[in-house]
Amino acid sequence: MIGERIKSLREKKGYSITKLADLAGVSKSYLSYIERNMQNNPSLLVMAKIAAPLDSNIEYLLGEEHLPKLNHEEMLDEEWHSIIKDAVDEGMSKGDFQALKDLIRSNMWKDNRLEVNPQSGSKKKTSNIIILHIDN
């Protein structure tokens, strides 16, 4: 499913496998394996790298029904514009913003994966995820 969604989005954008691999910073052969479902378990970091140039997100690649449609003008007031401008002025890149967004999403996903143990009534972690993003 992940590979099919990546391929479909890539084709809609008019990207070749080579172009998407370059934009995402992953190898062409690895991307091809993912698209052909020969690699069924890419890391969240790899999926985030692939999702960004496709204007997508990890949730959609994992099976969410629809890409979120957001009206950015309604969401971003003057304070948001100022925060973003300051971050960019201080050297934050688009990749940094994407990595931060993906880290927050993975933490929210992890928090939602907490299950209640029926015998003790206590919560038990079912997954731990760490995302590391390094810009050169």
UniProtKB/TrEMBL annotation:
<protein>
    <submittedName>
        <fullName>XRE family transcriptional regulator of biofilm formation</fullName>
    </submittedName>
</protein>
<dbReference type="InterPro" id="IPR001387">
    <property type="entry name" value="Cro/C1-type_HTH"/>
</dbReference>
<feature type="domain" description="HTH cro/C1-type">
    <location>
        <begin position="6"/>
        <end position="61"/>
    </location>
</feature>
<dbReference type="Pfam" id="PF01381">
    <property type="entry name" value="HTH_3"/>
</dbReference>
<dbReference type="InterPro" id="IPR036281">
    <property type="entry name" value="SinR/SinI_dimer_dom_sf"/>
</dbReference>
<dbReference type="InterPro" id="IPR050807">
    <property type="entry name" value="TransReg_Diox_bact_type"/>
</dbReference>
<dbReference type="GO" id="GO:0003677">
    <property type="term" value="F:DNA binding"/>
</dbReference>
<dbReference type="InterPro" id="IPR010982">
    <property type="entry name" value="Lambda_DNA-bd_dom_sf"/>
</dbReference>
<keyword id="KW-0238">DNA-binding</keyword>
<dbReference type="GO" id="GO:0003700">
    <property type="term" value="F:DNA-binding transcription factor activity"/>
</dbReference>
<dbReference type="GO" id="GO:0046983">
    <property type="term" value="F:protein dimerization activity"/>
</dbReference>
<dbReference type="GO" id="GO:0005829">
    <property type="term" value="C:cytosol"/>
</dbReference>
